Amino acid sequence: MTRGTLPWRNVTDRAAVQKAKELARTTGRVQFLFETPQQFDKILTIIDGYAFESAPDYGAISKILAEIREERHFRDREHWDWEDETVSTTVTTVTSFSDKECRAADKCSK
């Protein structure tokens, strides 16, 4: 939502995807979260603290995401570029860019 894509988006080998995801949660975490809201690290820490059978605290995670939305000036109900076109016809599709991409291409208004 803030950088545009996940590093494993175009990887088709399942083992390579798993390795990339594991790296993003361990030694590659800083690089994975580069130029993302600091709250993403907090969300990953919360999720990583759960046991498999734990029920996630969706309220706490939603609250953190709302904080990010407010800081980044996202509307409450965006129609994201990965959503089916039939989901909503009343809002504009949003393609997200990192802050660096916005500055480089002058694509985002603050």
Total strand segments: 2
Please report which band the strand proportion falls in: under 5%, 5-15%, 15-25%, 25-35%, 35-45% or over 45%. Answer: under 5%
Order of helices and strands: HHHHEEH
User: Biggest β-sheet, characterized?
Assistant: 2 strands, parallel
Through-space gap between termini: 16 Å
Give an account of the 3D structure:
The chain is mainly alpha-helical. The chain has one domain (14-105). 44% of the residues lie in helices and 4% in strands. The chain contains five helices and two strands. The protein has a two-stranded parallel ribbon. Helix 3 (39-48) runs antiparallel to helix 4. The longest helix has 15 residues, at 58-72. It is globular, with a radius of gyration of 16 Å. Residues 88-95 have low confidence and may be disordered.
Which labels suit this protein?
mainly alpha, 110 residues, 5 helices
Overview in brief:
The protein has 110 residues and is mainly α.
Would you spell out the secondary-structure blueprint of this structure?
Blueprint: H1 14-25, H2 29-32, H3 39-48, H4 58-72, E1 79-80, E2 93-94, H5 99-105
Parallel strand pairs: 1-2
Helix pairs in contact: 3-4
